[in-house]
Amino acid sequence: MADQHSTIIEFPRGKSDPRKDEAEYFYRRFRARLRELVVLFGIGSVVTLAVFFLALWLLPFEAFTPFPFPRFPGFF
Predict the structure, then answer these.
(1) Which of 2, 57, 60, 68 has a Cα-to-Cα distance from 39 of 20 to 30 A?
(2) Does residue 59 register a pLDDT over 60?
(3) What residues make up the domain containing 47?
(4) Number of structural domains, the chain?
(5) φ, ψ of residue 36 in degrees (nearest 5)
(6) pLDDT tens-digit series, residues 19-41
(7) CB proximity list for 75: less than 8 A, separation 6 or greater
(8) Is pLDDT at 54 greater than 60 in this prediction?
(9) 68: confidence class by pLDDT, cuts 50, 70, 90
C-alpha cells in the first residue's frame, strides 16, 4: 500500500525565535497605534470641516463690526 500523505501542514515543534516573536508583537502594536492615529486624524478633520462650514453658514450677511468685514459673494 502506498504511503499516505497528510494534507495538514506540520511545522517543526522546536523552539521559536524569541526575537522574531517580540518583533512581531511590537510591529502589531505599532500598526494598531498607527491605525488609531489615522482614525483620530480623520475624525478630527471631519469635525473641523463641519464646524468651519457651520460657522460660515451662520455668519450674518451684514458686517457687525466697525471695520469692513471681508465677504466672498461666491459663497452666498
Answers:
(1) 57
(2) yes
(3) 18-60
(4) 1
(5) -65, -40
(6) 778 888 899 999 999 999 999 99
(7) 56
(8) yes
(9) low
∠ CA 51-53-56, rounded to 5°: 110
Q: Is residue 27 part of a domain?
A: yes
In a domain, 45, yes or no: yes
Contact 43, 62 (CB under 8 A): no
Reference 58, options 46, 76, 73, 70; nearest CA is 76
In a domain, 67, yes or no: no
- Domain assignment of residue 50, yes or no: yes
Q: Which amino acid, 63?
A: A
Q: What is this structure's pTM?
A: 0.51
